From TrEMBL:
The lineage of its organism: Bacteria, Pseudomonadati, Verrucomicrobiota, Pedosphaerae, Pedosphaerales. PANTHER family: HEAT SHOCK PROTEIN 70KDA. SUPFAM superfamilies: Actin-like ATPase domain. Pfam families: HSP70. It comes from Pedosphaera parvula (strain Ellin514). GO terms for molecular function: ATP binding; ATP-dependent protein folding chaperone. Keywords: ATP-binding, Nucleotide-binding. This is Molecular chaperone-like protein.
C-alpha cells in the first residue's frame, strides 16, 4: 500500500493541505490538484439540521439561504479564547475542536481521495504568535491537536508556519542563502530567519532556523481599520438618539465590535436588538441605524467585510477605489485612496518593522547580511507591506510565490522529513 503523510495549514481566512509520498521520497505529484486553498468557513443551515457546508460550499449555501442559519468564520482566532468553551447549533453542542475538525476532515478527505489511500500522519502549521492580546498558546495547540485526533490522525506534529514557508522556498534556492521569510495571513504575521542550502544530488538539503518572531495581526486587522476609518458613519457612528429628555450618543462598544468581523455575531442578542430598535425610532440618523441593525441581525457581516477585502485587494494595484455595498438592507458607496489606506494601517506596518528589526538584532544580523526576503500569504500583496521590505532590504532581494499554498506545501515537506 502506498505510504503517504500530509501537512495542513489551518488558516484564519483560508486553509490548505499538501501530501508527501514516503515511498517516492518526494511531494505527491497530485499536489497541484490537492493543494488548493479553501475558505476557512462553516455554514449550518437552519432547515437542514444535520447538514454542514465547508469552504466555498459554505458561502454558496449561505447566500442561497438569504443569510439565514449559522455562518462561522475566523475560527482560528478563537483558539486562544478560554471563554469560548462551546456553542449550540441546531440543538447540538459543539466545542471549538469539533468545529475545527469539520474543516480538517474536509482537507483530509480531499487528500485521501486524490491519492486513493488513507493518511493518518500530519504536520500542523501554527503561527509563531497566535492572534489575540494575551494569547493562550498552550490552549490553542491543544485544541488543534484534539481536532486532528477527532478526524483520525494518529501521529501529529507541529511546525511554525513561516518555517514551513521557508521549507517550500528552499526548493527554489540554487546556492546557500540567509533568508528572511514573512508569512502574512488573515490573523497573524510571522517571520523566520533561516540559513538554507540547495538540494544535493541525494535530494537532501540542510537548513538551520536562526530565529522566529511574529505579531498577532495581519489582513483582518487591515480590514478592520478600513471599517473603522471609512465606514462607521454609514452605520450610525456620530449620530444621537433622544432619551430621558436629552440627546445621547450611541455606546461606543457597538462600533468597536462591528470593526472585528468575527465579533459581530456576538452582538446578536435580545437586549441589543431591542435597544437598536428603540434608537432607530428616535435618532438623527435612521438610515445609519437601519444599516447597523441589518449588519448585526440579518447576518450581513461577512458580506460587508467581503466588500472591504475586495477594495483592499484593488488597492494593491490602484491608487483609488471605492467600497461599494448594495445588499437588500445595507447600502453605501465610500471612496478610499491608497494614501488613506496606508495611513490607517501605518501603526501596524510600524509594528511589523519593529518585529523584524528585533529579530535581526537578536541574532546580530544586519539588513545587508540577509541574502533574500521571501514573502507569502494573502496580506503580503498589500502595497505597504511590500514597500516596507523593499525599503529595508532593497527591491532586488524581495521574492514572492505560492501566496496561498507555500505554507501547506512546506508542511508537507516537513511531514516527509519527520515521518520518513
Amino acid at each position: 500500500m502506498a505510504n503517504y503523510v500530509c501537512g495542513i495549514d489551518f488558516g484564519t481566512s483560508n486553509s490548505a493541505v499538501a501530501v508527501y509520498d514516503l515511498d517516492r521520497r518526494a511531494p505527491s505529484p497530485l499536489n497541484a490538484e490537492i493543494c488548493r486553498p479553501i475558505p476557512s468557513l462553516l455554514y449550518f443551515p437552519t432547515e437542514e439540521k444535520n447538514s454542514v457546508f465547508v469552504g466555498d460550499d459554505a458561502v454558496a449555501a449561505y447566500v442561497r439561504s438569504n443569510f439565514q442559519g449559522r455562518f462561522l468564520q475566523a475560527l482560528k482566532t478563537f483558539l486562544t479564547f478560554s471563554s469560548f468553551t462551546e456553542t449550540r447549533i441546531n440543538g447540538r453542542r459543539y466545542e471549538l475542536p469539533d468545529l475545527v475538525a469539520l474543516m480538517m476532515r474536509q482537507l483530509k478527505q480531499t487528500a485521501e481521495k486524490a491519492v486513493e489511500a488513507p493518511i493518518d500522519r500530519v504536520v500542523l502549521g501554527r503561527p509563531v504568535k497566535f492572534a489575540g492580546d494575551s494569547p493562550n498558546e498552550e490552549l490553542a495547540t491543544e485544541r488543534l491537536y484534539k481536532a486532528a485526533k477527532l478526524v483520525g490522525f494518529k501521529q501529529i506534529e507541529f511546525e511554525f508556519e513561516p518555517v514551513a514557508a521557508a521549507r517550500y522556498y528552499q526548493t527554489l534556492v540554487t546556492k546557500n542563502e540567509l533568508v528572511l521569510v514573512g508569512d502574512f495571513g488573515g490573523g497573524t504575521s510571522d517571520f523566520t530567519l533561516m540559513s538554507l542550502s540547495p538540494s544535493g544530488e541525494s535530494g537532501t538539503s540542510e537548513s538551520t532556523v536562526l530565529g522566529t518572531a511574529g505579531v498577532p495581526f495581519a489582513g483582518n486587522k487591515f480590514d478592520s481599520e478600513l471599517m473603522r476609518g471609512k465606514l462607521l458613519h454609514h452605520f450610525g457612528q456620530g449620530s444621537q438618539w433622544w432619551a430621558d429628555d436629552k440627546w445621547l450618543n450611541l455606546p461606543n462598544h457597538i462600533f468597536l465590535d462591528i470593526c472585528e468581523w468575527h465579533q459581530i455575531p456576538f452582538l446578536r442578542e435580545r437586549r441589543t436588538m431591542e435597544f437598536l430598535r428603540d434608537v432607530q425610532r428616535r435618532t438623527t440618523n435612521p438610515k445609519g441605524i437601519a444599516n447597523l441593525r441589518a449588519l448585526i441581525f440579518e447576518n450581513y457581516g461577512y458580506s460587508v467585510f467581503q466588500r472591504i477585502e475586495e477594495a483592499k485587494i484593488r488597492l494593491s494595484s490602484a491608487d483609488q477605489t471605492a467600497i461599494d455595498c448594495a445588499l437588500k438592507e445595507v447600502s453605501f458607496h465610500e471612496p478610499v485612496s491608497l494614501l488613506e489606506f496606508n495611513g490607517l494601517i501605518q501603526p501596524h506596518i510600524s509594528a511589523i518593522r519593529h518585529c523584524v528589526q528585533e529579530l535581526l538584532q537578536a541574532h546580530s544580523i544586519s539588513d545587508a547580511r540577509v541574502d533574500n526576503i521571501f514573502l507569502t500569504g494573502g496580506t503580503s500583496e498589500v502595497t505597504a507591506v511590500k514597500q516596507l521590505f523593499i525599503e529595508m532590504f532593497g527591491a532586488n532581494k524581495v521574492r514572492t510565490g505560492k501566496t496561498f499554498t507555500s505554507v501547506a506545501e512546506g508542511l508537507g515537506l516537513t511531514a516527509g522529513s519527520l515521518f520518513s
